[in-house]
Amino acid sequence: MFFSIIIPIHNSEKYLRQCIDSILTQTCRDFEVILVNDGSKDDSPRICDQYCDEDTRFHVIHRKQGKGAASARNAGTNMASGEYIVYIDSDDYIEDAMLLADIKKQAEKGYDVICYKFRKYFEDTDEMAACTFSMPAPIEGETIGDYVNRLVKCDAFYCAPWTKAIRRKILVDGGVKFKEGLLSEDQEWYYHVLIGANSIIGIDKSYIIYRQHKSSTSISWTMKNLTDTIRIIMFWKKEIERTNLPDGYKNALLNSIAKLYCNLLIGYTRYSNTDKKNEYNNLKKLAGLMDYHINPRVNTFYKVYKVGGFTALMMVLKIICKLR
């Protein structure tokens, strides 16, 4: 079995068939699908059973109590037997029948991580948005650090598990799991993946339709979003600096974390709860990450920071957020 496709499911009856049917259109047939029903109270369990009855490549894990997407993905990964793991969210779907075939071509060249693009579908307006970035083409002789830097520079570095295929051996040998209880578990998980990877490539083609529900199109930050992301950034900054990875790869990973950090600063300014003042000092302590400014947004933040300091940067961001 070449691919294990893992779908965490929680009350997804409205979208689940579209998601699964998009997998069945794939020209590459060498896959299994692991459906993880995470305590659904709607018709999702019956839909899962129906597909399993009709196709022996389908397997289902039924859980009476929902434990969250992180736990569901972990359960699916534990059951997987494919050489590569592909994660898909149950409310998204694949728009191109060549996804698995195109991934397999890159996998056969030896790549551990194979990234691909997506388009956003806004459910409330029935509009589709084009992908806003391009995946850089590989350059002969470049290192994994070189390529990660180019991903960061062109804004094509994404932590979401549904934007990539991962060699299962990396997850198994490294004991890589999604950390349960985090609101930013994708970020924490992906750096574990990258630490264990020897190669990465991107396919410059959109395959996934990422559904934006009305509730998800507005920026919604909570204190837990902020604190979890800050802790993840603090942990991985220290972890990467102390590893024995090549310096070029360390710098590339720190460039990627600097991008996450600047995205976090924007989220911080949009979050109105006064409790966020407790995290201000932690954000200020991490300002040195802007020294890794290969990404255009980070570079802009870096210039403002160098001229006016951290307080001035945060004031500028606050004004911009109010104007938008």
TrEMBL record:
GO terms for molecular function: glycosyltransferase activity. CDD domains: Glyco_tranf_GTA_type (cd00761). Signal peptide: none annotated. Residues 4-171 form the Glycosyltransferase 2-like domain. It comes from the Bacteria. Keywords: Glycosyltransferase, Transferase. This is Glycosyltransferase family 2 protein. It comes from Enterocloster bolteae.
